Amino acid sequence: MHGTGNDYIFFDCMGRGVPHPQALARKLSDRHFSVGGDGVILIEKSRMADAKMRIFNADGSEGKMCGNGIRCVAKYLYDSGRVRRKEMNVETLSGVRRLTVYTGGDGAVCRVRADMGRANLSPAAVPVLLEGERAVGRPVEIGGKEYRVTCVCMGNPHCVVFGAPPEPFGETGRAFEHSPLFPEGVNAEFVRVCGRNRLRVRVWERGSGETLSCGTGACASAVAAVENGLCDFGRDIAVRLKGGDLTVCYTSEGVYLTGGAALAFVGTADISDI
């Protein structure tokens, strides 16, 4: 399944688990020699929610949160009949998230709204090695170049830069991801403001490289835009990514992400050698 092109290979682990998920993600995510995807997501039983989501990036590292992935999990839970309510809860390593599904004419879920929790701009929460209470519009040097960054924790670390995406993009993205400023690595978003409450975002995702979309990245970009006075608090913000459009609303209660969730295909993979 994918959310605006951010594609993952999903395993229903409600009845049984899969061995070695880190190795599984590395093997199956290869787009040339296997299924291909930005990673693997396991849908497991939860004691505190309707299901639990575990995310493994293409490099095998485990992520804490994925805004596009969790919308797809909600679609699977509803469409498969595991959850027949249009509101549900999914457990993640960043806490339990509430989701609302919207169905199309065929009765299948086509869009999902996710309560992504509160954004945290504290350097310690991201984490980023900067002084002060908030990392908003701060000058830093990364890869030998100077940037003004806003760092946001959306259950995972993000660093947002406003302006045209740098080239070569991959080189810059890797420099951000592995900068000593970020002890746990970082997702980097390069954002252009296209109008009031309209953003265009290009994403370098920690553990996966450039992706067509990133739900938490869209949220972090919208939060950063509001905090820098470029978008409006409490209003819908249209975020355009390479893979499509998402809507983010940053409020005092939390950050809300709305977008599509689509099934690409269903298949069987031989994982006996993992």
What's the gist of this structure?
The protein has 274 residues and is α+β, with helices and mostly antiparallel strands. Helix content is 16%, strand content 38%. It has helices at residues 21-28, 67-79, 169-177, 215-227; strands at residues 2-3, 6-7, 9-12, 39-44, 51-57, 62-63, 87-92, 95-103, 109-115, 138-142, 145-153, 157-162, 187-195, 198-205, 209-211, 236-241, 244-250, 255-260.
Describe this entry's structure for a reader.
The protein is α+β, with helices and mostly antiparallel strands and 274 residues long. The chain folds into 2 domains: 2-115, Diaminopimelate Epimerase, Chain A, domain 1, CATH 3.10.310.10; 138-253, Diaminopimelate Epimerase, Chain A, domain 1 (Roll), CATH 3.10.310.10. 16% of the residues lie in helices and 38% in strands. It has 4 helices and 18 strands. It has helices at residues 21-28, 67-79, 169-177, 215-227, and strands spanning 2-3, 6-7, 9-12, 39-44, 51-57, 62-63, 87-92, 95-103, 109-115, 138-142, 145-153, 157-162, 187-195, 198-205, 209-211, 236-241, 244-250, 255-260. The strands form 2 sheets. It has a 16-stranded mixed beta sheet that branches.
